[in-house]
Design brief:
- The protein has about 280 residues and is of the alpha+beta class.
- It has 4 helices and 14 strands.
- It has 2 domains: about 10-50, no CATH class; about 80-270, no CATH class.
- The chain is about 25% helix and about 25% strand.
- The strands form 4 sheets. Strands 3, 4, 5, 6, 7, 8 and 9 form a 7-stranded antiparallel sheet that branches.
């Protein structure tokens, strides 16, 4: 005898023997109680029975939620690390590019002067520029945006130096555009020195090695034979620049020049690519 979809009680049927009406009842899920006398898990109808699936326990749900939280936390950490690595690479590239271009400009003159923006435009791979604006701006094909004063001005942090302060948004429109997060200032002196700036609290820029670490290479003369060695390794640009005598003034704070760095020793700053701890 076949029961209706709304009938009470249990029905002892095998999936192989269900008629069309009972199949429709199964699909609608309207049986109050249904037990199969013989289960045939290979039959597609078997999966239609609501009572076949067991609900998750509270403990299982908690375990799944904990696993999702761990995965999300790990993913966020990896994403932040990749972003930090990207900023380091952009910062290093900005310093190397600016330093190279300034050295090229000095090959044509004894000292830099005038509108530096217009001079940089001829050397950088530029997509947009406005060197007549205040401040002047350049946008490179890598996306970096350089903003600077138009004309020469004293640089109070560097003794007896004049030049320009260039703020470089190292990741352009891709980033937040925040000072010492992805926008970093650089001093460019008229005699061709490129000096990354820094902030004291919290340390950022040239006074830490997060984005730019450098070493100091110098000449030694054992037995009157010139040899090259490493004086300092994997330090901040500020420390290297001041100990090597590359710069002086309030920029150095309490850091003094290393006695080994004389005119004869020729101490030189060597930038390290991001990820290289020593050289």
């Amino acid at each position: 005898m076949t029961k209706s979809c709304h009938s009470e009680g249990s029905i002892n049927l095998s999936p192989k023997n269900l008629n069309n009406k009972e199949i429709l009842c199964l699909r609608a899920g309207r049986f109050a109680r249904l037990r199969f006398a013989q289960y045939d898990v290979t039959n597609p109808l078997f999966s239609l029975v609501r009572g076949h699936h067991r609900a998750f326990t509270f403990a299982e749900i908690v375990i799944v939620m904990m696993a999702v939280a761990v995965i999300a936390g790990a993913t966020l950490t990896i994403t932040r690390q990749k972003l930090a690595n990207a900023i380091s690479a952009y910062y290093y590239s900005a310093y190397i590019s600016l330093n190279t271009v300034v050295k090229e400009l000095l090959m044509d003159t004894s000292a830099l002067e005038g509108n530096l923006c217009a001079q940089l435009e001829s050397k950088f791979n530029i997509i947009t520029q406005d060197c007549t604006a205040i401040p002047a701006t350049l946008t490179t094909r890598t996306g970096a945006v350089l903003t600077m004063n138009n004309n020469i001005a004293p640089i109070s942090q560097l003794n007896n130096s004049s030049g320009w302060i260039i703020n470089i948004d190292v990741d352009g429109k891709r980033g937040k555009g925040l000072s010492y997060v992805d926008v970093f200032p650089f001093y460019v002196t008229t005699d061709g020195k490129v000096v990354p700036a820094y902030q004291t609290t919290p340390p950022a820029g040239a006074n830490e090695t997060k984005h730019l670490a450098v070493s100091v290479k110098y000449d030694t003369f054992p037995s009157n034979i010139r040899q090259t060695g490493w004086l300092l390794k994997s330090i901040s640009f500020q420390e290297a620049a001041c100990k090597s005598g590359y710069v002086s003034g309030t920029y150095c704070g309490s850091i003094t020049k290393n006695a080994a760095c004389t005119e004869q020793a020729d101490c030189r700053i060597v930038p390290l690519k991001p990820g290289i701890l020593k050289r």
